[in-house]
Amino acid sequence: QPLISSSKWLQLHGLKRNKLSLSQILSQIGFQHREDYVSSLGRPVASRYAAGLFPQYMRAQDGSVYNLTAKKDLILHFVACLMRAIELYKQRMDWLTSASRQIFGVIQEQCVVIVLDFGTVCPAEFDLCCDALSMVLTEQVTQIAKFNLIRAARDLVRWREQPAAVCEQAVSSALGWLRTLARAAATGPGSSAEALLEAMGHETVSA
C-alpha cells in the first residue's frame, strides 16, 4: 500500500467518497419526512401524504425521519457495498498495525534521517532494534526519495555525511552498515541531542 496518512486514505477510500455514509445512503433509498413552517398558516405543518405508506427510519443524530422507498435489490446492493468497505477498513487496520508500521508509523516524508539511540540496551534488545530498523528500511524507506542514518554516541557515527538518494544499492549498503555497528558505544550526556540537531540540520522534512 502507498505510504499515505489515514486522513488521505479516507479521502480516497472512505464512506463519504464512495457515497456510503448514512445520510448519503438514506437520500438514495428514500426521502426525508419534513415538517416545514408555512408562513400563510403561521405554524409548522408536517407532510402527511406518506404517513403509513412506507417504512420509516429515524436518525439518532438529529432526529430526522426518512421514508424508505427503495426496493429490496437496492438495499442489498448497499449492504454488499458496506461489507466490502468494512473488509477494506480491516485490511487497512491490519496493515497499519503490522511490521515496521507498528513501531514507526507510516513514513510520509520524502527525505528522512533516522537517529539511532541505543542507550544501554542489552545485546538481545540491540538485535531487536536492528531488526526493526532493517524492516523500516526495506518496507518504507525504499518508497521515499532520500535517507540517512545517524547513531547517537560521544563521537557521532553516520552512514552518510548527507542524505543519500534511495536505490537498491543504497538500502543494501545501509543494511550492511547496521550489521557492523557495535552493540556498545561510548555516549555522553548530550549525545542524543547532538544527533537530533545534526539530523534536523540536514535537508530533511522529518528526523
Describe the model.
This protein is of the alpha+beta class and 207 residues long. The chain has two domains: 6-97, no CATH class; 103-201, von Willebrand factor, type A domain (Rossmann fold), CATH 3.40.50. The protein is 43% helix and 17% strand. The protein contains seven helices and nine strands, in the order ααβββββααβαβββαα. It has helices at 6-13, 22-29, 72-96, 99-104, 123-139, 168-180, 191-201, and strands at 30-33, 35-38, 43-46, 56-58, 65-68, 111-116, 146-151, 157-158, 164-165. Strands 6, 7, 8 and 9 form a four-stranded mixed beta sheet that branches. Strands 1-5-4 form a three-stranded antiparallel beta sheet. A two-stranded antiparallel ribbon has the order 2-3. Strand 4 (56-58) and strand 5 form a beta hairpin.
CATH class of the largest domain: Alpha Beta
The unreliable regions are none
Question: Helix count?
Answer: 7
Question: What is the CATH topology assignment of the largest domain?
Answer: Rossmann fold
Number of strands: 9
Radius of gyration: 28 Å
Write the layout of secondary structure elements.
Elements lengths: L5 H8 L8 H8 E4 L1 E4 L4 E4 L9 E3 L6 E4 L3 H25 L2 H6 L6 E6 L6 H17 L6 E6 L5 E2 L5 E2 L2 H13 L10 H11 L6
Parallel strand pairs: 6-7
Antiparallel strand pairs: 1-5, 2-3, 4-5, 7-8, 7-9
Helix pairs in contact: 5-6
Fill in the keyword field for this structure:
207 residues; 9 strands; Rossmann fold; 4-stranded mixed β-sheet; VWA3B protein; alpha+beta
